[in-house]
Amino acid sequence: MNSKPKILLIYTGGTIGMRKDFETGALKAFNFSKLLHNIPELKLLDCEIDTFSFENPIDSSNMNPEHWAEIVRTIENNYANFDGFVVLHGSDTMSYSASALSFMLENLSKPIIFTGSQLPIGDLRTDAKENLITAIQIASLQENGKPLIKEVCLYFEYKLYRGNRTTKINAEHFRAFVSPNYPFLVESGVHLKINSELFLPANDGTSLKVHTHLDNNVAIIKMFPGISETVLSAILNIDSLKGIVLETYGAGNAPTEEWFLALLQNAINRGLHIVNVTQCSIGSVSMGHYETSTTMKKLGIISGKDITTEAAITKLMYLLGQNIASSDFKNVFETSLRGEMQ
Q1: pLDDT higher than threshold 70 for residue 43
Q2: Which of 12, 15, 278, 314 is catalytic?
Q3: What is the 3-state secondary structure (H, E, C) of 205-223?
C-alpha cells in the first residue's frame, strides 16, 4: 500500500500567515507549528504535512533575489523527502517570485505551488483557508505513484495557474490574479477540474538542477507619450545596467523619432539586452506588424512575445546570471524555457 504524499509547507511571510488579536485588533504572526490545531480541516487531506518557516518572515514588498535563493535552497534541501511544496507568500510580488522560481528550478518533477490570501488566516471572512487547503490538495495529486504536476504554479481563488503566466490585477477582491495569455490548469469547484493537457511535459528523468545566481542589473521602462530623451538616456546609460524590459504600446509599438531609435541602437551596440513586451494585459508583441515596430525589429531588440512583465524581468535576471554569449542571448530569450511564452 502506497504511503501518503508528503507536502512541505514553506512560509515566507505575507497576509496569509497573520492572525488577528481580537483584544487589540492588531495582526500578529501565525505559529505554523500549530497549523493542524488551528486548521483542523487539513487533517481531512490524504497527505502528510510538514512546515518550514523563514526565521524572519518578510512582507512580500521586501522580496528580492536573495530571498528567492533562500526558498530555492529550502526546496533543494528537502526535495528528496517530499512529494510537493506549497509556498506561502504575500500576494503583492507573488507573480514575480513564482516566475523567478520557475527559471531557478530546472527539470522539476514535483509541484511547487505558491498561494497566499487577501485577508489574514484568522479573519472571519478569510480566503486563506480555502487557498491553503486546496493548494495542498493539488500539490498532493498523484498518478501512478508520481506527482501529477511538475512545475511552478500559483493557486488563488479557485484557480491554479502556471506561475510564470500570472499577474496581480486586484488589491481588494479575492480574485487577485489572472493568467492573461494562458488558460488555468486546475479549477476548484465541487470537484477539481484538471486540464492536464495544459501541464508542462514531464522531463526526461534528468535530475533537478538549481540556479541561485541572478543578475539584477536590470530595469523596467514603461513607455508613455511625452517620455523625454533626457530621462531615457539617463536610464540607458547607467554604468552597471545589463538588461531592460521595455513596456511598449499594443503589439510592441514605440515612437519612431530619430532620437529614440538612436538611443536604443547605441545601447544595443554597448551590449545592453532590450526586451520588448506589451503594456496590454492581454496579447502579444509582434514586431514588424506595424511600421512603428519594424525599426525596433531591425535594431535587434528581443521580442517578449506574450510573456508577462514579471516573467520577462525574472527571465532576464536568470539568463544574465548564466553568462550566455551575447550572440546567443536573443535566441535563448525568445525560446520558451518553462512555458512562459508561446
Answers
A1: yes
A2: 15
A3: CCCCEECCCCCCCEEEEEC
Rg (CA), the chain: 21
Q: What confidence category does residue 192 fall into, taking pLDDT thresholds of 50, 70 and 90? A: very high
Q: At what angle do helices 326-333 and 309-321 cross, to 10 degrees?
A: 150
List beta partners, residue 274.
Answer: 244
Rounded CA-CA distance 197/68 in Å is 29
Residue 105 in grid coordinates: 528550478
Tell me if residue 29 falls in helix, strand or coil. strand
Three-state DSSP state, 48: strand
24 catalytic per annotation: no
Which is more confident, 178 or 173? 178
Query: Please, which residues have CB within 8 angstroms of residue 152's CB and are 6 or more apart in sequence?
Result: 98, 101, 102, 105, 108, 112, 113, 114, 162, 163, 164, 338
Look at 194 and 17; give whichever has higher pLDDT: 194
Q: How far apart are CA 44 and CA 183, in angstroms?
A: 29
pLDDT for residue 240 is more than 90: yes
Residues in the chain: 342
What average pLDDT does this structure show over 273-299? Answer: 88
CA distance 89 to 10: 9
